[in-house]
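Sequence design from tokenized structure. All designs in this work follow the same two-part layout: the structure record, then the generated sequence. An example of the structure record is given first.
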């Protein structure tokens, strides 16, 4: 009876591990999609708003999901407090504080960090061109991750299930 309970616990743990990995993949894709939406909103604000950067970030933060909302608020505060500092450095500092909360891949996180360079340009055209490039990179990343999702989900489920079965066989 005790071995049966152990086998059930092992099987449940391996299924839980597979579920956790698949949920992580979904979260990564959804946060990258939210980042793409953020860049789209930023493009509209840069084009039509013409307000100072800290106000622009606060305005954008009202419409963004977590953790992007917190990053924007923190970036706005840092830029208001240190008006003479380098904007890309302040943006990287604000993003670095929330890195553990972001489920972004390293290349997508690098695109988020490039947002500071967009803020630093004096020319609106240069900012919009860099923003369009970043949006293309994110769209390609979302497309590739979505294409890989089904295969990885099946792989994670099979590997975790087989690991659980092997552990049960060893237990018996």
């Amino acid at each position: 009876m005790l071995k049966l309970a152990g086998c059930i616990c092992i099987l449940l743990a391996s299924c839980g591990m597979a579920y956790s990995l698949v949920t992580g993949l979904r979260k990564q894709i959804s946060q990258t999609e939210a980042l793409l939406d953020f860049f789209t909103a930023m493009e509209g604000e840069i084009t039509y708003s013409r307000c100072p950067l800290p106000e622009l970030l606060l305005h954008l933060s009202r419409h963004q999901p977590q953790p992007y909302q917190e990053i924007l608020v923190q970036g706005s505060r840092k830029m208001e407090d240190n008006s003479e500092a380098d904007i890309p450095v302040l943006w990287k500092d604000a993003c670095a504080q929330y890195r553990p909360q972001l489920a972004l891949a390293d290349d997508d996180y690098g695109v988020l960090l490039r947002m500071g360079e967009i803020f630093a340009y004096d020319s609106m055209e240069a900012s919009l061109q860099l923003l369009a490039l970043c949006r293309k990179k994110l769209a390609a990343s979302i497309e590739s991750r979505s294409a890989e999702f089904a295969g990885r989900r099946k792989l994670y489920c099979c590997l975790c299930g087989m690991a659980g079965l092997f552990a049960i066989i060893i237990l018996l």
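The chain has a mean pLDDT of 83. We note this feature because it recurs in several other targets discussed in the main text.
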